[in-house]
Write a structure and sequence with these properties.
Blueprint: H1 8-20, H2 23-30, H3 34-48, E1 53-54, E2 61-62, H4 64-88, E3 94-100, H5 102-119, E4 123-129, E5 143-148, E6 156-161, E7 164-168, H6 171-176, E8 190-192, H7 197-205, E9 216-218, H8 222-230, E10 236-239, H9 244-248, E11 260-261, E12 265-270, H10 278-293
Parallel strand pairs: 3-4, 3-5, 8-9
Antiparallel strand pairs: 1-2, 5-12, 6-12, 7-10, 7-11
Helix pairs in contact: 1-2, 1-3, 1-4, 2-3, 5-8
């Protein structure tokens, strides 16, 4: 079979010349001299004992024999290029185990999971709702999306996003029991995703530490307190990442124009030895790209009460319309673990 095939280099010269319309252009593309391309085309014509181009005129024109040969050569080179790309493309198939902060997994990652699946259909994800940094030492876990300070030993970690906290409530509950002022919070159930320290931080920023509180419920993580707010159970503290889409869809409302920086931030982390694995790289790159291409929606001020603290604290108070905040002096950590 190989003895009946013409040599490769003359075929490349022929294809480039036919596509470009001139020997000079083909020579520049192939990074060879004009004479080299002419020589290869003449050698190919000699092997076929037939002319492939009509000489004369500013642009070369294929002969009937050349027009017959060109589609087959073009297709063959395209197939070779595709096979070469497939052989050198990083392996992005197989199973990938990911742990993620429960609230972030439920309210941010799951709604966008189809975008990853469409881009990498051969990757099978195993998702675990957890904020336990001990997973960083587990050989059964590939990537961790954690809420913390990022100071974990013997692993790779990169800041994914900072976030800010603010009260959220369902429209149904707000219609039944308005929040015209911060003092109205005493008539609502206060929902905690930690031991209460985050609400204390927000109330301090609002200059309302003396607020008389009504009933309170304490839950193990922010996903549960947010779900309780969705079910009209009270007022929770949401954040710009996990609550942003819920507010944009009208499922939750931010009744006050005040945010405080969260205790820590979201980080992507993994063991050093798995960082270079192609399947890990593509997932981490997708996380950053998805966050960049889908920014947090701006929260509308018309549905909220503007709070003006008696003692302004510009370093710790920001408007909700700013989706990212800088950190302040650290309060106690938010408990987001499952």
């Amino acid at each position: 079979m190989s003895s009946r095939l013409p040599p490769l280099n003359p075929l490349r010269a022929f294809e480039a010349t036919a596509r470009r319309g001139s020997v000079s252009a083909a020579a520049r593309e192939l990074n060879v001299t004009h004479g080299a391309v002419s020589h290869q085309i003449r050698a190919l014509e000699a092997s076929f004992n037939a002319p492939l181009f009509e000489r004369g005129g500013k642009r070369l024109k294929l002969t009937p024999q050349g027009a017959l040969l060109l589609p087959a050569v073009t297709h063959a080179f395209a197939e070779i290029a595709a096979a070469t790309a497939a052989m050198t493309r990083p392996a992005t198939s197989g199973e990938l185990t990911v742990t993620c902060v429960p609230a972030l997994l439920s309210f941010w990652m799951i709604p966008r999971l189809h975008l990853f699946t469409e881009q990498f259909p051969d990757v099978q994800l195993r998702l675990i709702a957890s904020n336990d940094e001990a997973h960083l030492d587990s050989p059964d876990v590939d990537v961790c999306l954690l809420y913390g300070d990022g100071n974990w030993q013997d692993c790779w970690a990169r800041l994914w996003s900072r976030l800010a906290l603010f009260p959220v409530v369902s429209p149904t509950l707000l219609n039944m029991r308005p929040l015209r002022s911060i003092r109205d919070l005493r008539d609502h159930v206060m929902l905690h995703g930690d031991d209460g320290r985050e609400w204390n931080t927000w109330l301090a920023a609002a200059d309302a530490t003396d607020l008389q509180r009504g009933r309170q419920h304490f839950m193990s993580d922010a996903r549960l307190s947010t779900e309780a707010a969705l079910h009209n159970q009270g007022v929770a503290l949401g954040d710009t990442i996990t609550a942003g889409s819920l507010i944009a869809r009208g499922e939750l409302i931010a009744p006050f124009d005040l945010t405080v920086p969260a205790n820590d931030a979201f980080f992507i982390a993994c063991r050093n030895e798995v960082r270079a694995a192609p399947i890990v790289r593509v997932f981490i790159d997708w996380l950053f790209a998805a966050l960049e291409s889908d920014p947090m929606p701006e929260l509308q001020i018309s549905a909220r009460t503007v709070i003006r603290s008696r003692v302004p604290k510009p370093e710790s108070i920001q408007h909700v319309s700013s989706p990212r905040s800088q950190s302040i002096e650290r309060p106690q950590k938010r408990r987001l673990k499952s």
